[in-house]
Amino acid sequence: MATKIDLIKLHHPEAPKILIEPPGPRAKELLEKQKKFEGNPVLYPRMIPLVPDEGLGATIKDVDGNVYIDFFSGISVLNFGHSNPYILEKAITQLKKIAHTLDFPTEAREALAERLVKIAPGGLKNKSKVIFGGPSGSDAVEGAIKLAKWITKRRPIIAFEGSYHGQTAMSLNLSSARKFKDPYVPLAPEVYFLPYAYCYRCPFKLEYPKCNVRCADYVEHVLEDPYSGIPTPAAIIVEPIQGEGGVIVPPDEFLQRLRRISEKYNVPLIIDEIQSGMGRTGKWFACEHYNVTPDIMPIAKSIGGIGLPLAGVVYREDFDVWEPGAHIGTFRGNVVAMAAGVAAIDFAEEYGLLDHVKKLGEEALKFLVDLCKESKYIGEVRGKGLMIGVEFVKDKESKEPFSDFVSKLVLETFKRGVIVWKAGHYGNVARFLPPLIITEELLMKGLEIFKDTVLKLEKEYASVS
Ligand code: PMP
To answer: Distances in Å between the alpha carbon of 273 and those of 137, 161, 296, 311, 356?
Structure first.
């Protein structure tokens, strides 16, 4: 079925189209209503006044009829597009049959487990087990950590600066941002943060490759030195590309060395593919770029196919020593999301989506690298596939982060019909995570608008400074 698809038909034909400067009248009403009834943690509408009405492929129509190109995919949840008809049909069929089955087997559940084991990276392929617990990525991270603790009987965890693993107590503890943690500490104790290979802002003030990947050496040092002060950990947890941290792509050797170190010291390696997985980087999982196999791999976001909440943990077969009920939740996977997940994997395979992502990703990266040369404030462009970050600095020498510029850029780009988002330690990275089914034409249209907005804003800043 999917081979016959014309990707162009999946999107709103007129995107982008701004009829009225957002927020339009209906959007204003709903934003007001949200303020009245929803609590203060609501965050995203404070940055852009988007009030979505309809999603189609890589486009979103708002309640006043404006149509945007979506470069965010609800944080990589809609890799296969909004309302992709091929997936939608399967989800609706399942919904009409049965929606909630705990962990009793169903056709959809077993089909998804089988597909996930088949597309699992490296040594996990056809040799892993899958569990489904709660519906969020945070829950999958909790599951991954619990499994590592169960296996090793140890408690401490090594995580990395710049990480994001979620918002529940344990996963929150593994996330680095102070703003999320300060109100609640102490959370789960014994998490140690080590430097990640963020080469643009090297924590050791060294340069790659002369540095010989000092951050990997440092991990080895704390495990080897009996007086490092860090107890023997139950796991090392790492994102193969840090998403919230600012789309930080480490050198290949970083993950490869972590793999070797974790084997040498007998510490399970958890690779969090929640944001970078499900085709986002042009491979099913980002760790495949480095030929590295995780021992345990939490996944979520796009595995629900069409935006339905679903999460899971894929792990080595020989780690399957858990007891029944060891990691559970009421939903234990949502069977409608599972049917959609199966349809999404079928769709991607039949369409050759991974090659499409690779091709488009290379074009987008080249476009943005060229823009970096022209721009006064772009310090670095980095990414793999359709996971791309553009880091803004006040000055290319000092690399002082330029967060205000990015906030303004996100808003101005939105007003011109393109949704990009912020990330980074300092909120100074513009992040691109478009649905993978985006067409080349839509991608380039959106990038041109982004470029135009960057250069226009740069002129405005230059004229006031
Ligand atoms: N891990 C990573 C790498 C993530 O990007 C996220 C969410 N952005 C999470 C875990 C947490 O997922 P959720 O928000 O679904 O709990």
So the answer is: 9, 17, 10, 11, 20
